Amino acid sequence: MHKKSMICLVAIIVFPALLLSSTVSTYRFSASPAPRPGLSGNGITDLCSNGPYIWIGTGNGLSRLTLSTNTFETYGTNQGLGHGSVAAIWASGDTVIVATATDTVTQVTPEPLSKGTGLSFSFDGGATWRHVPQPGPTPVQNLAYDIAVLRGVVWITCWGGGIQKSADWGETWQQAPPDTFIFNTARLNHLGFSAISVGDELWIGTAGGINKSSDGGVTWSNYNYSNQPEPISGDFVVALGYQKATRADVIWAATWKAEGENEYYAVSRSMDGGLSWQTSLRDEKAHNFAFNDSIAYVATDNGLFVSDDFGKNWYRFPEMVDVVRDVRIYSNEVYSALSKDGALWAGTADGLARTTTNGYWWDIFRAFVPTGKEGEKRTYAYPNPFSPMRHNQLGGEGNVRFQYNTRAAAKVTVKVFDFAMDLVKTVVEDKFLTGAGDYAEVWEGRNDYGDAVANGVYFYSVEIEGDGTYWGKVLIVN
Q1: What's domain 4-365's architecture?
Q2: pLDDT: which is higher, 454 or 397
Q3: Phi and psi angles of residue 78, each rounded to the nearest 5 degrees, phi first
Q4: How do the domains of the chain map onto residue ranges?
Q5: Dihedral, CA of residue 370, residue 373, residue 377 and residue 381, to nearest 10
Q6: Which of 7, 22, 57, 159 has the smallest number of CB atoms closer than 10 Å to its CB?
Q7: What is the mean pLDDT of residues 313-341?
C-alpha cells in the first residue's frame, strides 16, 4: 500500500449502482513549459522504470530521473499533470500514465477526504501530456491507487469509483467490477487497491481479496481469506507483484487485516496461479514489491526486507546511510522499491535511496530548497513545525533538519537555544566540511541531557568558520 499511507481513507461514500460508465468530455493537452529541475518531494510513493528513466511519484508531484546523467526533473500542473500527490504510475516504452490525488473537505464532514485529481497520459516519454478528470460519479473518496494495461485496455483500481477500464486511453471509462454484480460501493470486492497484468492474465486486489481474470475481465476467480484451505492473510490487498524467476513464477500480495477476526497483516505469495497461498512477514504492513530473478524485496512500514528463497526467510536491511556524505534516511517507512540494472532503489518517507552493494552503503537523494541562492536565507529548518513524536521517525526518535550552506571548506557549529536564549543542545561542534555546498544537521528534539524538550519556539545558530553566524527558528509541537 505504497500510496495509501500518503492519502487518507476516512469514509466510504455509497454511490448509486446505476452509474455504470462515464465519458470524459474534457481534457487538457500540454506541451510546455519544460519540467523544472530537481526532485519534487521526499515522500516517495511510487517508483516505475522504462528504458533510460525512472519515474518517481511523491507526495508533491511527479519526477523523472535520467539514469545516464543522474539528473532529476519535476512535472506538475504546468506540464499537464493533475494537482496533488502521485497515487500511481504505469510506464512502458514511451507511454506513461500517472494518477494524482489530493485531500479535500466537504459540507458532510470536516474531516479531510481523499480526492482524485485525474490521470495524465504521455505517449512520447513525458514531452507532452494529456490530462483527463478523475473518472467515476464523483472525485471525492475516489482516486486511482494503481494502474495496469492489458491488450491495450487501461485498468485503474479506485476506492469510491471501483474498478474502471478504458479501451481508448482514458477518453471514456467503464466500471468493471471483478465479479458478476453491478458496481456498488457497499461491496468490499468492488473497492480497488492494486492491479497487475501477467501475460494474458489480469490480477486485481480489492478490499475483498484477490481477483484473477484470464479473458480480459469477462470472468473472474476470487481468492480471499475465507474461501481457501491455504488462504491469503487478509482481504485488504493493497499491492500486487509478479516475480518471474529462473526457478519459479510467483504472484505476491501485500495482504492487510480487513474485517475478519482472525485476519492479519502479512505478505502472501502463490506459486500455482492462486490455487494456494503461503504467508510470511506476519504483522508487517507491506506497501510494494521489487524483484531481481529469485530475489524478492518488500517495502514495509518497518523497513525494506529481502528474501532469496521465495519468502521462506527474510532479512531486513539496516539503516540506509550514505557514508561518503554522512547522510542517512531518517524514517522506518519504505513505500516503494525498484530493482534495475544491478541497483536497488527504495522510496521512503524521507527521500530516495539507491544501493549497488546490497545495502552496505547507499546514495541518498532529497528534495530541498538550496540555501543562500536566489534570495533564500542561509539556513532554515524542516519540517517546521516539528513533532518529535511524528516526523522522520527512526528508532523511536523524530528528527528535524537544519539546512545551511558553506561557501568554502570550514568548521561548523550548530546550537539550539530556548526562548530565553539558554543553550539547549549543541548539535555539532567544529564539524569540518571539505568544501562549498548545501548541508544539513539533524536534531531529535532533546536537550544535552537527553530529555525531550517542551513545546514551543526554539532558536538555532549555524556558526560557519570564516563566514559568520546565521540564525533560524523551529516550532516544537507534540
Answers
A1: 7 Propeller (2.130)
A2: 454
A3: -65, -25
A4: 4-365, 379-476
A5: 0
A6: 22
A7: 91
* Closest-CA residue to 100 (of 156, 136, 61): 61
Q: What is the mean pLDDT of the chain?
A: 88
The DSSP code sequence of 46-83 is EEEEETTEEEEEETTEEEEEETTTTEEEEE-GGGTPPS
Grid coordinates 500455482 are at which residue? 272
Cβ atoms 82, 75 nearer than 8 A:
no
**What is the 8-class DSSP label of residue 140?**
B
Whether the Cβ atoms of residue 252 and residue 243 lie closer than 8 Å to each other: yes
Cis peptide bond upstream of 383, omega within 30: yes
- For residues 72 and 54, give the distance between their C-alpha atoms in angstroms, rounded to a whole number: 9
Nearest to 160, CA basis, from 11, 46, 21: 11
Q: At residue 385, what is the residue type?
A: P
CA distances from 445 to 322, 329, 388 (A): 23, 17, 6
Q: Do the beta carbons of residue 317 and residue 307 sit within 8 Å?
A: no
Q: Above 70 in pLDDT, residue 462?
A: yes
Q: In Å, what is the CA distance from 444 to each residue of 124, 182, 387, 428, 447?
A: 45, 52, 10, 13, 9
Neighbouring residues of 70: CB distance < 8 A, sequence distance ≥ 6: none
Cell numbers describing residue 209: 481479496
- Strand arrangement of the beta sheet that strand 379-382 belongs to: 379-382, 400-406, 437-443
Whole-number Å distance between alpha carbons of 346 and 356 = 12
d(CA 245, CA 270): 13
| Placement of cell 526554539 in the chain | 458
Helix and strand element counts for the chain (H, E): 0, 40
Length of the chain: 478
CB 208 within 8 A of CB 235: yes
What's the rounded Cα separation, in Å, for the pair 249 and 310? Answer: 10
Report residue 322 as a C-alpha cell.
550514505
Helix (H, G, I), strand (E, B) or coil at 319: coil
Alpha carbon dihedral 388, 384, 114, 94, in 10-degree steps, equals -110
Residue 226 buriedness (CB in 10 A; 0-12 / 13-18 / 19+): exposed
Nearest Cα residue to 171 out of 21, 391, 394, 38: 21
Check residue 353 and give its pLDDT. 96
Contact 194, 87 (CB under 8 A): no
Question: What is the structure's pLDDT at 393?
Answer: 66
**Per the structure block, which three cell numbers stand in for 106?**
466537504
Kindly report the CATH class assigned to 379-476. Answer: mainly beta
Q: What is the pLDDT of residue 221?
A: 96
Contacts of 468 (CB under 8 A, 6+ apart): none
Which amino acid, one-letter code, is at 289? Answer: F
pLDDT in tens, 336-389: 999 999 999 999 988 999 999 999 889 999 887 778 777 788 998 888 788 877
* This prediction's pTM: 0.84
